[in-house]
Amino acid sequence: MAVSKDVVDKIESLREQIRHHNYLYHVLDAPEIPDIEYDRLVRTLEALENEHPELVTPDSPTQRVGARPVETFGTVEHRLPMLSLGNAFSEDEVRDFHRRVVGRLELSDEGGQLAYAAEPKLDGAAVSLLYVNGVLQLGATRGDGRRGEDITHNVRTIDAVPLKLIGDDYPETLEVRGEVFMPKAGFEAYNERARETGEKTFVNPRNAAAGSLRQLDPKLTAERPLDIYVYSVGVVEGREIPDSHNEVLDQLQAWGLKTCPERSVGKGFDGCLAYYEELGARRESVSYEIDGVVYKVDSRAEQRELGFVSRAPRWALAHKFPAQEEMTVLKGVEFQVGRTGALTPVARLEPIFVGGVTVSNATLHNMDEVNRKDVRIGDTVIVRRAGDVIPEVVSVIKSRRPKGVRKVKLPARCPVCDSAVVREEGEAVARCTGGLYCSAQRVEALKHFVSRRAMDIDGLGAKLIEQLVNTDRIKTPADIYSLAKEEVASLERMGEKSAQNLVAAIEQSKETTLARFLYSLGIREVGEATAAGVAAHFGGLNGIIGATEEELEMVPDVGPVVAARIRAFFDEEHNRQVIARLKKAGVHWKETAPQPAPKDGPLADKVFVLTGTLASMTRDEAKDRIQALGGKVTGSVSKKTDFVIYGEKAGSKLKKAQDLDVETLDEGQFEALLSEL
Length: 677
Description:
Layout: H1 5-27, H2 35-51, E1 75-77, E2 87-88, H3 91-105, E3 115-122, E4 125-132, E5 135-141, E6 147-149, H4 152-155, E7 173-181, H5 184-197, H6 205-213, H7 218-222, E8 227-237, H8 245-254, E9 264-267, H9 268-281, E10 290-297, H10 300-306, E11 308-309, E12 312-313, E13 316-320, E14 325-337, E15 342-354, E16 357-363, H11 367-373, E17 376-377, E18 380-386, E19 390-396, E20 406-407, E21 421-422, E22 430-432, H12 439-450, H13 462-470, H14 477-480, H15 485-489, H16 496-509, E23 511-512, H17 514-520, H18 528-538, H19 541-545, H20 549-552, H21 560-571, H22 573-584, E24 588-589, E25 607-611, H23 619-628, E26 632-634, E27 643-646, H24 652-659, E28 663-665, H25 667-676
Helix pairs in contact: 1-2, 12-13, 17-18
């Protein structure tokens, strides 16, 4: 039986009214009707949709919590990467950022009138929302910046996230980025209810937001008091948007998306600092957690001109608030062994509440730091959460030093495997020599091997790896690929389905890239970028294995130290055996033609070292210019070095260059050299 046009019109009218009032309430904070009237509208719509279920649409306001629980999160590829921001912890670092921006834009007034959009740096979880023809299609976490998790079913439960945009002038495709957070009041209220019912409480609002978005059941997420502020756009298709970043946010708000009310636009460096100081002074009174402010060049045209470096835009900066500090007593020091054998002294503290969490452990970094700070067991120390994340011992209050304190001593033997501990000349870090014999290194190496940016074996987490190692089921990465489903299913907290999923993930990981594989091996000082550079340069694994240190040094970013690390890794027979076993198990990648660094150009065969702080460009930018002209940039000075380029606060590399009679150029001389080519 056909539904009358009056009913269809009535339903659509109710939806538009509810969307309008949602916008007034959640986005503008300006409701115009009492809650009871809003409830009447919702109940009327629900009644009509119950009578006519064929008219229910996904963007209806009644469908916020309509999805069934999911078994796992799908993976989402971001069409445009969700990049992180560079951090600044001082005025000088902000001034340097501003100076770089001004220099690249070639502004004549020292950037005094350059407009910066400024807003609080929210302490929550970054998400991406995709709207197609105005309807919410996808919500995803930031993940590693290129791939995140599909959390559509959860973001739909957040009242401030419109299921359908307002108006009719929005783009056909609109991706927005924002931060999901839990307001302070909501966080306290939720924890109070949890304590009353005996449920687990959250440590801080950031963890609360991230944990809520990763609930498999959207009904649980809907119970959490989550909010969102959008702060940028990603993919935009089918409509032009304003050139001003701040005006883009105004437009997003007009389409029904919530933006931060604290955002502002200031002029130049002084405008940025004024905003930072003003917001910092009332940080505690803001209704949500913030850990700094974010500056963005307001002109999107200038943003495009400035571009990006590595994982961050050149036109944006996060200026962190001073880390929160507290005093406590150092009860003892233990040494942890990392995946590369590095021994890290860890302070065991009298528990203290710092920056929203209870801290009982803090890093002491290395023995040089321990000695420099003169840290002793029994001391009263200042603990700081650096960047509001990593607890560290900042200093000792020596006026409170009691009698009987004990010095911290580096152990002569590994605390895990009893192998000898060595400290190489010129290194601050001491290392266990146990290699694959050290179970601590084995566990950490396997964790690294399976991690998201390495072999990306979903479901093989830290606790499961520890089980597999502790039961002698796996000793090397190659053993992972011989695990049987029945063997996995027999482990603690593993069922048939989980075992099946893990075995499938292991099988899927066999198809990878050379860069990922190289990174997964955990070679000291070979990170993602270096692994990618080495893979591209040689094209295949055999070329890397057979390369001399000199040949490895021809790769951009690879200096003598890194080249020696790579060479030493492949010189070890057991490492080559593991690789052979991995390939035999089916791990493979597409090999490509070698892409060596350019040998032509006016700087061909010239070796440069950069040191100190350059005023008109970053060292990465200077490096790019050298390499574009055929030159090579290394990290250490030797007799093979042709030029050392130095800026402010140049250190030992400049002195070594002078000792070795290597030609040195200041920034002006360097610019003159480039201009002559």
